[in-house]
Design goal:
The chain is of the alpha/beta class. 47% of the residues lie in helices and 14% in strands. It has a four-stranded parallel sheet, with helices on both faces.
């Protein structure tokens, strides 16, 4: 049996992965030879603070066929510096060969903009914006992907008092197709998972 432990910074990412991972892992996961568990830590800083202790704990018991995936938002930080920081924590814990670090550019919502079809299915009043310059490359959306997604949804009459990140993550991710997402960081995440299995 193989198993992946996912360490995430927020509950909305957990909700999204619970919908997306079976599509990436299928048919492995349904063949009962693959399992996973998701742990979210409410915010990025909390995850980073807890990582050293968590990883040292894993080192004491983790079997050879287990892997750990750390998924964290870039949040307008320098992507390379952030990844180096996380890898340094991993290396110090002595788990380099057991851990994969993936950075979401810039935030989880970029992955939703990467699959406009899923966005349109979840929220039918949203038009096809995939060819508009502002949304063509979801990893380079300016002004914050969370803020942009809220603006797009509110413009069409959804969430007039503000979006619920967890509900939006659940709604959109349930329709996402991992094989056709235009977000490069999502593609890197998917290829990392496929390489494990």
């Amino acid at each position: 049996m193989k198993h992946i432990e996912f360490l995430l910074e927020e509950p909305s990412a957990e909700v999204a992965l619970n919908n997306v991972l079976p599509k990436i892992l299928y048919p492995k996961i349904f063949g009962r030879d693959f399992t996973y568990k998701i742990h979210s830590f409410n915010n990025k800083q909390k995850l980073i603070e807890k990582l050293p202790g968590l990883l040292k704990g894993y080192r004491r018991w983790i079997p050879q066929d287990y892997k750990i995936v750390i998924l964290i938002d870039e949040d307008r930080e320098n992507c390379i510096d952030l990844k180096k920081k996380i890898i340094s924590i991993v290396t110090h814990a002595g788990l380099s060969s057991d851990v994969i670090v993936r950075i979401v550019i810039e935030e989880l919502e970029a992955w939703f903009f990467g699959d406009i079809t899923a966005l349109m299915k979840a929220y039918p009043r949203i038009p096809d914006i995939s060819n508009r310059a502002a949304y063509r490359d979801p990893d380079t959306i300016k002004g914050g992907t969370w803020e942009k997604l809220e603006k797009v949804l509110q413009h069409k009459g959804y969430y007039s008092t503000g979006i619920s990140k967890i509900k939006v993550a659940r709604d959109i991710s349930s329709f996402m197709n991992p094989n056709s997402n235009r977000s490069h960081s999502f593609g890197v995440f998917v290829s990392g998972i496929k390489n494990i299995i």
